[in-house]
Write a structure and sequence with these properties.
Length: 248
């Protein structure tokens, strides 16, 4: 137990937060390791899955020791390391899936939001308790209004409380919802197999456009989409994919 475990199984890389005795709370070295494990994927990896060890928690956010042991002037350096990790996950060239196996709060919830897709069981609860610690929810918490709408996102952030997926509207946050933890692996495997099928080139291009769509207005997004389409359409892998689709 300690730093996140990294395991490759064919085209799927699984990164497991591995501090189950502390609800998989994150230290800064864990944050750095997650970013590194996503950045160094080889050409054969087509999907990255992030999950937590055990059944208790996906992750309890940043370990309190990170904050209580820091000097007042350390805040920017701490949050910048988390922001770098989440940006790496969000902009990874392959699909990322959060396998939510238990409670998911704080920085761990932001990690799940940074993923492209989320698979959870019905007992999962999520929250951003930072306000209760006297600090704001930042970095990829900014994605929450996109999923929940402004009113509900602001309630979740301002109360700092835990919410069941049913209270938030599960389909707003998760792509696959199963009844029990035992069903998670099959649901994740099926979704991973589906999103691993397209070419790496088109997935990377599409994910780049997701980021553009989030950051710019509709006019600029459409213009960028035209440019990216032209570039990907000219790639040899696209020709192969078109032929394979036409002649299965």
């Amino acid at each position: 137990m300690g730093l996140p475990r990294v395991h490759d199984d064919g085209p799927v890389r699984t990164i497991t937060l591995d501090r189950p005795d502390h609800a998989n709370a994150l230290h800064l070295e864990d944050v750095d390791a997650i970013g590194a494990a996503v950045r160094d994927i080889g050409p054969d990896i087509r999907v990255v899955v992030l999950t937590g060890a055990g059944e208790r928690a996906f992750g309890a956010g940043m370990h309190l020791d990170v904050f209580t042991g820091a000097e007042p002037g350390d805040g920017r350096a701490i949050i910048s390391r988390l922001a770098d990790c989440l940006r790496t996950v969000r902009t990874a060239p392959v699909p990322t899936i959060a396998r939510l196996n238990g409670v998911c709060i704080g920085a761990a919830f932001e990690l799940a939001l940074a993923c492209d897709l989320r698979v959870a069981h019905a007992g999962v609860r999520v929250g951003l308790p930072e306000v209760k610690l006297g600090i704001p929810s930042v970095v990829d918490a900014a994605l929450l209004p996109h999923y929940l709408g402004a009113s509900l996102a602001q309630e979740l952030i301002l109360t700092g409380d835990l919410y069941g997926l049913d209270e938030l509207g599960a389909d707003r946050l998760v792509n696959r919802l199963v009844g029990t933890p035992a069903e998670l692996d099959d649901a994740v495997a099926a979704l991973a197999a589906t999103v691993a099928a397209p070419t790496r080139e088109v997935v990377a291009a599409q994910k780049g456009l997701f980021e553009t769509w989030r950051e710019t207005g509709i006019g600029d997004s459409v213009t960028a989409s035209v440019d990216v389409f032209a570039e990907v359409f000219a790639a040899p892998a696209t020709r192969d994919a078109l032929r394979a689709y036409r002649n299965p």
